Amino acid sequence: MIRYLTYSDYGQLKGMKTNIQDDYIVRIFPRLVENDSLVGYFEDDRLVGIAGLTTFENEIGILGRLRTDVDFRGRGIASSLMKTLMESAYSSSSIKWIGYATEKSNLPANQLSKKLNMMLTSTVVSARIRAGVIRGKVDSISFNKFQNPITKRSALSNSFQDSRFSFFPYEIYYPLPYIPVLSDVYIEKIELYSSEAGDFFLSREEKGDSYLHLKLFNPTLLNSKAMWTIVNNIASEEDRRIWIDLPLEHDHLLNKTFEKTFWHLIGQGRETRT
């Protein structure tokens, strides 16, 4: 049986054998079930698998929070949970795309795409670094900060479209296959720094650690001293690590001082589902 989880399932969740130490899902479970974002797979009234779906800008669904009890793996529980979430999400006409991001090295999660009729959309390089490690090489660029929401929205959309990136770095851990219609709340959180050489965008995010998410669509700006001065100062003052997402083809621009993770963004559009 598959159903949405409630707080009464908390004890069973904690009892699942997943071999994950200090699982964040257990910590934030009350908030997750409040939003009806977790479903569970039960066998003889025992919770043996869970999965969730997060909706972004009311048009893109990202699957995740997948856990299966070690004693019940290999039985198709993961695909059953995800198919249930997909069917529910697509019942809303506003949902245009559903998928998930998984590490390139996670073979079971990558192979799951076949059962879900999903395709590889993009390979993403997530790079993390401490403030002050990178300082740039070119110092002829000057950036101005803009706060007008209309200006920020236009610059973000134009920068992404001009880049031809195969994904949009919406949030840390959440690359999206395209840029959706962004809410005013999202735009408000974005800082825009503009120059003749290009724009970059910053957002502050709490994802287990405190991060400054650098949204960069012109990779040549990685050499800019002016950009790194701004980014390093903010990250240092606020004790944040810097996070950058780039397509795989730009990985060579990120030197060995960056800590990297390679992700596969996998999914399907409404028109391609079966």
Order of helices and strands: EHHEEEHEHEEHEEHEEEHEE
Helix content: 25-40%
Strand order of the largest sheet: 1-2-3-4-5-14-6-13-12-11-10-7
Strand content: 35-45%
**Total individual domains:** 2
> How many β-strand stretches?
14
- Under CATH at level 1, the class of the largest domain stands as Alpha Beta
Structural class: alpha+beta
- What average pLDDT do the residues reach? 94
The number of helices is 7
Structural summary, described in words:
- With 274 residues, the protein is α+β, with helices and mostly antiparallel strands.
- It folds into two domains: 2-95, Gcn5-related N-acetyltransferase (GNAT) (Aminopeptidase, 3-Layer(aba) Sandwich); 125-265, Aminopeptidase (3-Layer(aba) Sandwich).
- It has helices spanning 10-15, 24-34, 77-90, 107-115, 149-163, 184-189, 225-237, and strands at 2-4, 38-43, 46-56, 60-68, 97-103, 119-129, 144-146, 168-171, 174-176, 191-195, 198-206, 210-216, 241-247, 259-269.
- It starts with a strand and ends in a 5-residue tail after the last strand.
